[in-house]
Structure formats: structure tokens, C-alpha cells
Amino acid sequence: MNLRVIKKDIEFLIGDFVEDCLLFAMLHPDKDRTKVEELIEKASDLADGLFYRVNHPDKSSKKATKAHYKEIGHDLIKGLDDLCEGLSALAK
Fold this sequence. Notes:
The protein is mainly alpha-helical. The protein has helices spanning 3-27, 33-55, 62-91. It has one domain (3-91). The chain contains three helices and no strands.
């Protein structure tokens, strides 16, 4: 994967999650809005951390750089999965 694709994936997936949070808040005004805002803040923090890591790779070797970006992809999916579980818990 190239750098541009990784950055777009982070931006798209985090943005999509934030949209889901805002939609949830509008459709369920009876639910605690502060918890939704906390999830949005966590998503923003996740994106900031991932963008920092994308922009500061380990350039010691090509193999290490590839592993670095692969780990970022796994962390993105894991982080979003955790955030989605939090949003699902609010819906119950």
C-alpha cells in the first residue's frame, strides 16, 4: 500500500464512524449524548495517533517500514472495532 491510500483509508473510516455517531445521536435523543461525544473524541484521538505514526515510519529497512504500515492497518481496524462496540453498547 502506498502512503496516500493509507491516509485516505484512515480519514474515510474514522469519518464514517463519526457520521454514524452523529446519526445515532439524532435518532436517539433520549440516549446520553455525552457518551457519543466521548466516542467521537476517541475516534479523533485514534486518527491523530495513526496519522502521526504514518508520517513517522521506521526507515531502518524496507522490511521494517512494510511491517510498520501493516501494523498501522491492523491498529486501525482494531481501534474502529472497539469504537463500534462502544456505540453498539449505547444502543442497548
